[in-house]
Structure formats: structure tokens, C-alpha cells
Amino acid sequence: PPRARARTPAPRAAAMALRLAALRRFASKPVPLGASGGQAQAMKDSVNKLGESVKGFSFSAFFEEKHFWKAANVGPFFLLLFFTPTLYRGFKDAYWTRQLRKLNTEEIVSDRYEWLKLNMLKDEVEAELLKQVPAGSVKPLELGPALPP
After folding, report:
1. pLDDT tens track for 83-130
2. Gap between the Cα atoms of 117 and 37, Å rounded
3. How far, in Å, CA of 94 to CA of 86, rounded?
4. How far apart are CA 20 and CA 60, in angstroms?
């Protein structure tokens, strides 16, 4: 009898198993209903604290000279100020690249339709001229008499 081979899991199944293992590894520990978990509560508190700081932000207080130079965290402000031209240029380039790529596609399609229309007209003209050809074929065109007078 033929030997039974051990079946190896399909690559798709192995990938799914790894994904599930990673999900279980990084998932928080289960907390019974009604009880609050330490990490979950800390996360909720930090989100609430962030929301309160955003609600309580005042531009006039932040940019007041004494507070701005002594107490305020001005790093993000100066980073934004420094990188604004680069960010603006990047967004502008991305926008115009997208727009011109779309326009280029539209022009290519339009040119193909125009080429098709011209060739269809040319084919119709050739078909009509072929219908008018005499039975013996076309006579050669003479520009003048063969012998001088």
C-alpha cells in the first residue's frame, strides 16, 4: 500500500494561523463585565485628557509672548512653520500630477476617437471612388500631348 504522506497546511491557512496568533498576542487580556481593566482605563483617561486639552486650547493664551517663549511647547509650531513650504509643494505636486494624468488619459482617448473618425471617412471615400472606376480600370493621366505641335 502507498505510504500516507503528512499533509502540510496550505500557504493561505498558514498565513491565517499566523495572523490569528499575532492578533491574540497583541490583544488585551479579557476583563470581566462590569470590572474596568487597568490598561483600558488608562487609555480612556488619556483620550479624555487629550480631548480636554484640545477643548481648553486658546490661541491668544498660547501666542502671548511671555507664555510662548517660557512655558509653551513650541516645537510642533516651529516644525510646522519650517516644513510648510515643503508640505505645500508636495500636496500641490501630488494634486497636479493626478489632474494631468487624468487629462492625459482623456486626450489619448479623444485622439483615438478622432483617428478612428478620420480613417472611417477615408475608407468611405475610397469605397465610393472604387464604385466609380470604369470596367477596364483607370486610364493613365496625360498632362499634355506626347508630341509637340
Report:
1. 999 999 999 999 999 999 999 999 999 999 999 999 999 999 999 988
2. 72
3. 12
4. 50
Task: State the cell numbers at 115.
Answer: 483617428
SS3 80: helix
Asked if 37 and 29 count as a contact pair (C-beta separation under 8 A), the reply is: yes
The pLDDT tens digits of the residues spanning 14-59 come to 777 788 777 777 776 666 666 666 667 788 888 888 888 778 778 8
Is 0.70 surpassed by the pTM of this model? no
Cell of 43: 487609555
Cβ neighbours of 143 (radius 10 Å): 4
- Please check whether residue 45 is in contact with residue 54, taking contact to mean a CB–CB distance below 8 angstroms: no
Cα atoms in the Cβ-side hemisphere of radius 13 Å centred on 95: 6
How far is the C-alpha of 8 from the C-alpha of 29, rounded, in Å? 32
Nearest to 105 by CA among 97, 95, 116, 117: 97
Q: Cα(110)–Cα(1) distance, rounded to whole angstroms? A: 68
Alpha helices in the chain (DSSP H): 11-26, 38-55, 59-62, 65-70, 75-131
